[in-house]
Write a structure and sequence with these properties.
Helix content: 55-70%
Largest sheet: 2 strands, antiparallel
Distance between the termini: 19 Å
Number of strands: 2
Strand content: under 5%
Order of helices and strands: HHHHHHHHEEHHHHHHH
Amino acid sequence: MSDRNAALDRARTFITVLVLINHSVVAYTAFGRFYPNHYLWSTAPIVDSQKWIGFNALTLFNDAFFMALMFFLSGLFVWPSLQRKGIGHFLRDRVLRLGVPFLACIFILMPIAYYASFRLTDSKAGFVEFWLGNFKQGIWFDGPAWFIWFLLLLDILAIPVFLFAPKLVDAINRLSIASFSRPVLFVGVLFAATVVAYVPLLFHLGAVRWFNLGPLQVQASRVVIYGVFFLAGMGVGAANIDRGLLAKAGNLALRWYVWVVAAAASYGLLTILINFRRMRLSNLPGAPPFWWQSSYGVVYALACVTISIAVLALFLRFAQGEKNLFDPLRGDAYGIYIFHYIFCLWLQFSLLNAPLPAIAKVLIVFVGTLGLSWIITATLRRIPGATRIL
């Protein structure tokens, strides 16, 4: 693997770690609320009485970009894979790699994880009764596995693009090459596409509503954003990646500080808008005013794009060496993502009555979640053929 690709893989591993951090802290945010009578409506599956307002800022930062960037990184190698393997082999690999873990998640792993949340209600049902009752009622638990099924859907949709619209991907690739020296070209187009993808759905559906079709769940207002980032990744990775936006010697990497400043400024604007709504607009009936909602949509899109670009720039600039902090996790990162939610929720559950401050609990939860999910992944990957899935 080239240094350039190693840097991108390290960025993907970093995002996986961010997911674990985000799920570790969300139980301890100042806005956390748990509703025993409707536990699935709670702000998080587990909500602790120990809170720290600093975790609000962290979850907002992560929520602004990390899953969109994950779809971008996932799209980078789709086009070369289709060209190398052919459609049939590509589809079989993706169904095996994504479909099998998703089924394991919705039938086994996520019910085990969410049973910790269910234990905080007044019900005394055992796990088997809980498991059977949910399926009878049509209740499905995706948890973080929503990303897996939606990525599989995008991979499937990439096939007709490959067959009937290759010029679209070629155009994105040409834009990437032109952005070697002027990354603002690519960033500007991605920002405009993200605004168009997000703002109409934000007005129509709101920011927090989820699409639910049986076990298929995804945050409705961000569906098109994820598709835009995935398609952008496909275009960048289609060819000449070493001469385009993500080139080691390109201006994105060389002027990383510009994008860090832009990301910080856009995140600051997003924070100001959200706090303004909480402080000044929270008592207004109905949806927020038009000016606020439209401003939020544009600023959210700006933060999503600039933070993603800043992270890529940082890794391209500083993660090119032979060794890196994230390398030991790299091969097991996908499995860690699949298994971590069980350990995260049950560790949070076990610490509910512990006389510890929120920061101490988060450290215990994060280290325990990472360690246990890493151990089980590394163990399973030793089974012959398991690396095709994990």
